[in-house]
Amino acid sequence: MRRVVDLSAMGIETMPDAALRKVERHLEATGLDYTHLRPNWFMQTFSTGSLRAGVSAGGAIQVPAAAARVSFIDARDIAEVAAQALREPKHGGKAYTLTGGRALDHSDVAEAISRAAGRPARYVELVLSSAGARARCR
């Protein structure tokens, strides 16, 4: 049987009109043996993703997150789960929410980056209005 592992997003099952949920429903209707993986935010967003420039340039993580805690997950862990889901038929027709081992706020992440990099990093909270303005300027 043909098997598909779909990379989706945490919480998407609660958003019926979201594009990723529509993709999930389409796969479910095809008759393929599917597994949905719904990870939380990738930890790599700080080292290779959208937040890298700020961290590299001035040691600042700038997002409108306040004290929100996120269970960031390493993309390699997601890949390991995907490989297992492809190899083992028992995962067919299932959806898995994937998270990191503990929830961290962005100040916690900045501390971890500081320790690992040997130089200061900090979290700078953006308010939504300035975040929106920054996104429009790019």
Tell me about the biggest sheet?
3 strands, parallel
CATH topology title: Rossmann fold
Q: pLDDT under 50 segments (min length 5)?
A: none
Spell the H/E element sequence: EHEHEHEHEH
Strand order of the largest sheet: 1-2-4
Net shape: elongated
**Which structural category fits the helices and strands?**
alpha/beta
Total strand segments? 5
Proportion in β-strands: 15-25%
* Distance between the first and last residues' Cα: 45 Å
- Per CATH, the architecture is 3-Layer(aba) Sandwich
Rg, rounded, reads 18 Å
What layout of secondary structure does this protein have?
Layout: E1 3-7, H1 19-30, E2 33-39, H2 52-58, E3 60-63, H3 75-87, E4 94-98, H4 106-117, E5 122-125, H5 128-137
Parallel strand pairs: 1-2, 2-4, 3-5
What this model shows, in words?
The chain has 138 residues and is α/β, with parallel strands linked by helices. The protein has a single domain (3-137), classed as Rossmann fold. The protein is 39% helix and 18% strand. It is built from five helices and five strands. It has helices at residues 19-30, 52-58, 75-87, 106-117, 128-137, and strands at residues 3-7, 33-39, 60-63, 94-98, 122-125. The chain has a three-stranded parallel β-sheet with strand order 1-2-4, with helices on both faces. A two-stranded parallel ribbon has the order 3-5. 15% of the residues are buried.
